[in-house]
Amino acid sequence: MTPCKSIPRLTFTFFLFFSLSSATAAAAHLQSESENSNSECKGRWIHIRKLPSRFNLDLLTNCSAYPIYDDFCPYLANHGLGHKTHNRSHSWYRTDPSMLELLFHRRILEYPCLTPDPSLANAIFLPYYAGIDSLRYLYGPEVNSSAEHGLSLYRFLQQDNPQIWSRYSGHDHFLVLARPAWDFSQRLSNDPPLWGTSFLELREFYNITALTYESRAWPWQDHAIPYPTSFHPPTLALLRLWITRVRRARRNTLILFAGGGGVSAAPNIRHSIRSECDNSSAISNDTTTGTLISGQSKVCEIVDCSSGVCEHDPIRFMRPMLQSTFCLQPPGDTPTRRSTFDGILAGCIPVFFEELSAKSQYGWHLPEDQYEQFSVFIPKEEVVSKGLRIIHVLKAIPAVEIRRMREKLIEMIPRIMYRRHGSSLGLKAEKDAFDLAVEGTLTRIGSRIEELLAVR
Ligand SMILES: *[C@@H]1O[C@H](CO)[C@@H](O)[C@H](O)[C@H]1NC(C)=O
Ligand SMILES: *[C@@H]1O[C@H](CO)[C@@H](O)[C@H](O)[C@H]1NC(C)=O
Ligand SMILES: *[C@@H]1O[C@H](CO)[C@@H](O)[C@H](O)[C@H]1NC(C)=O
Ligand SMILES: *[C@@H]1O[C@H](CO)[C@@H](O)[C@H](O)[C@H]1NC(C)=O
Ligand SMILES: *[C@@H]1O[C@H](CO)[C@@H](O)[C@H](O)[C@H]1NC(C)=O
Ligand SMILES: *[C@@H]1O[C@H](CO)[C@@H](O)[C@H](O)[C@H]1NC(C)=O
């Protein structure tokens, strides 16, 4: 814990946040009122609920208070993008995914259809940093009160302008949970509590929409949105430059796994990947399994990301991903991984081992009916217990097919990245992960309300 070191930086972040946010909100609002008033914003108006700072900014002051989690003070910089990887970098940051609540808050201040009048809004955004607030239950002193996560927010919403909530019984409210929904789904009946808070199990929050990195198998409130990568370009030119680099990259490795785990003897997919990869030099000499695609010098590479060494150091994995054809995306503690999006960004074709890893999650961002056009699916049971070799499956895919998949993947890059706040107009015209999340939320809330009005 280094509170002395972190405080000045934090104050700076706060100052930036306040000054920029009020200016942009005002600008966005003016724009909303004049240009966009009816046609373009019809059905898309969002009201940002004013919350006391104890629900968002105050929570950041405790950024070094959870030593068993992490000191997350450094990740707060640049409205949650983190520090730039280098002083001269324009697009690359040391982004920690758990900061999406800040990043989303900053981005929504630029949303063109904001309204100060909640009664005109199609959706109400709650700028509550729910994942950051959950740390005191997950890792802090309130570990035994995890059923209370969110109740003070609910009490506030019932006391302060209660008509905003009661108009549609909260069905029009949404927020961001920058963690898998699993972390918020502990049964209220578990005593003593197991892992997680009960935020999504509380009746009080049954009606809201929660944007998470991983939705539950039978989601009710939650819908999954992409993990942020480290790439947040401010202009269309920088995005295009990156895409050109991805397209031209010389991929001399067939298969890459960037991650940890699988080192123990327990049979699981990560263990199988490790042992296949370690054996791969032998396999590549085996003439019966075919030859390497021309120009490829390595069959399989592992970038060891155990103990979180890669998390804030994108160069460690982005360069190998640019040099590889396939990126393995096995489940870990939970089925989804940030690495899926890092890999797409690098044009490295994802290999999934479970449908829960992406296909049943990111319907707003990745076309659910086109997975075979940009990814490979190898059921993990086939590999772990039936001896199917990942390398054999991937080597059998013809080069022309690989090129087609990569092109499709590259097309999707703008949709899965979060561009930098305050970016150029040209870039704003492309829909990014934030835009698609808001679009999906508005559609979802719209149909909820329709149903609600139909039964009233
Ligand atoms: C910060 O942590 C301290 C100690 O756990 C706690 O008393 C305080 O309420 C926390 N502040 C916020 C804003 O959560
Ligand atoms: C980056 O810039 C800051 C302030 O301009 C400076 O203090 C720091 O030393 C620079 N870092 C590097 C790696 O050049
Ligand atoms: C939580 O409850 C467990 C079991 O009752 C107890 O051992 C532990 O000390 C409690 N933790 C805190 C922080 O109160
Ligand atoms: C959730 O919505 C239902 C109707 O759809 C309503 O009966 C219930 O009171 C709402 N819950 C809350 C906490 O507002
Ligand atoms: C790796 O090689 C060993 C020894 O040749 C063999 O027993 C094992 O089945 C191989 N594993 C995989 C996954 O190829
Ligand atoms: C595979 O071939 C390379 C060079 O052709 C050789 O250096 C390497 O030792 C071989 N590996 C095995 C396991 O035979």
Describe the protein:
- By secondary structure, the chain is of the alpha/beta class.
- The longest helix is centred in the N-terminal third of the chain and has 32 residues, at 3-34.
- The chain has helices at residues 3-34, 57-60, 100-108, 130-138, 151-159, 162-166, 236-248, 269-284, 315-322, 339-345, 371-374, 380-384, 390-395, 399-411, 413-416, 425-428, 433-455, and strands at residues 46-48, 123-125, 173-176, 209-212, 222-224, 253-259, 298-304, 324-329, 349-352, 376-377.
- The strands form two sheets. A five-stranded parallel sheet has the order 1-2-3-4-5. A five-stranded parallel sheet has the order 7-6-8-9-10.
- The N and C termini lie far apart (54 Å).
- It contains 17 helices and ten strands.
- Mean pLDDT is 90; it is low at 1-27.
- It has two domains: 9-229 and 431-455, no CATH class; 236-416, 3-Layer(aba) Sandwich (Rossmann fold), CATH 3.40.50.
- The structure holds 2-acetamido-2-deoxy-beta-D-glucopyranose (6 copies).
